Request: fold
Amino acid sequence: MTGKRTLFLTTMETETTIKNEAIVAHEPQNHIMLRVQAETQAFELIQRQAMMLSKSTLVPKDFAGNVANCAIALNVAKRTRLDPLMVCQNLAIIHGRPSWSATALIGMINASGKFSPLRFVLDDDDNPTSCYAVARDRESGEELKGEKITLDMAKREGWSTKNGSKWLTMSGQMLRYRAASFWSRAYASDMSLGMYTQDEVRDFAEPPRNVTPKNPFVMPEPEPEPETEEPAQEPTKEPETIEAEIVPEKKVSSKKAGFALDEMIKELEKEVNP
Reply:
């Protein structure tokens, strides 16, 4: 009796172990399926939200009617924890690259709570030629000083030499914007996601050029030959016609012809026998 009971318990333990192993083997697969299902639902939700944004009249032209761009803006809003409409209104696409407006970037830094509000130190309040941004880390109390931006740097980098550049008309504001952009990439790149500002993209990036090679098999069209004036031809003269006069044939009598012959013979004989 004891042997049968021991055999029964051993059999139950074996079956239980097999079932547990089967459950453990199926758990990763079920987890993957649940994850794929959750990602599919999240993608469908973003697609519906992007469709709604693309039909709004409050979004800029880069997002109006463009579901793909709106979906990217929603992704940026999720990563930066910002309002989607605010992202659409302050995110511009220049030469195929998304870029922030400088005012939005300054607002994100000031509203983050990690730093004190940005301050801009100018060398001259009336006619500034240099500027740098500075803020204090609220956790450590350290003062964070950004790169100094100067008008000489803008000239050497070619920012102020472009057509329609605002560096020539509003240099003080451009110095502040560029100083804030440099500061954010140095101390708060997680907020800007490493993206440049709109003014930087216009200054740094060049418009795309057409580098498609010409088709070498296309024969060039022959150039038209220059027209040459032909010399004027002289009019041809018609041959003159000469009328021939017909002289009637004179008839000689047989007697006169015989007499003339005898005279010629006599003359010859005199010459031969003088």
Summary: The first strand starts at residue 91 and ends at 94. The chain is about 50% helix and 10% strand. Residues 101-206 form one domain.
